[in-house]
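Provenance

Sequences were taken from public entries as deposited. Structures were produced by running a predictor on each sequence independently, with no templates supplied. The record for t-SNARE coiled-coil homology domain-containing protein from Henningerozyma blattae is shown for reference.
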Amino acid sequence: MSESYDDYNASMVDPTFSDDENSNKYHDSPEFETLKDEISANLFEINGQIATLNHFFQTLQTFITKKQVNSKVINNIDKKAIENIQLINGIIKNVNNNLLIKINNIDDLSLDKVQLIAREKLIRDVRSSIQEFQWTQKNYTDIIKKINDIAKDSYNKNVMTEEETALLVEEETANKAKTQTQTQLTSKDMQQQVYIPREAINNEELTYQQTLIRQRDEEILNIENGINEINEIFKDLGAVIQQQSSMVDNIEANIYSTVDNTRQANEQLNRALNYQRRSNKFCLHILFILLGIFFFFLFLVLI
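Predicted structure for t-SNARE coiled-coil homology domain-containing protein:
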């Protein structure tokens, strides 16, 4: 009896004596571990795609700096960047709408402190990657706007409407129609002056440039809408982090409180144990005295 009582007392003196045995079920959470691994894998993919998008941005920035705005090369880069942005958006939405919701719905009582902290860190990491994605998208949008502005200026300078051409012909004719000889010569010069710009500009190329400008304007609008949508996820994760941070702080405070209560209970148990031991000694002394008196009277009777 005293041995089991001492063992119990030892477990109260050292709170870790039975902590591992009592908390094994809290460490064993296959669902949490699976979700954590899936979120980590998706987070790795997001960060890799963000690095690729940032590389596209730097390449376009180099073209702007060197004033080498080749529409076909830029269009190829832009297509890949848009695919990259759409892929990242899809991964972020999947992580937020599926994985994070599931891991947040796991009962806190089924997780230990380490797992709660790991969950909070995962959400912080996802939020940090989303923030970096937002910055990279904004930088990319700004550079595409610059490229589009340059393309618009070039397009407007090269395009000449039929009304402008007619006015130019009329003006040149009026200025050079003073003599018959000059009129014939001027007519040839005018044709050259009028048709040189037309020969220099390919109508199909102008149409292609116009289409690209319109597509980029639409892409910029779509990216900006996507930024606003992802920003809502960013805000929601901020609220979740704040809530879980308070929860982790409360758990830590409860742990310290539990340790204090355990120490106080241990002191009380030690006092009770000492009192019990003193009581047992006192009872043994009384028993020996009574036995001595009993044998003394028995001896007198026998005599």
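Confidence is low (pLDDT under 50) at residues 1-26, 190-200.
The chain is about 90% helix and 0% strand.
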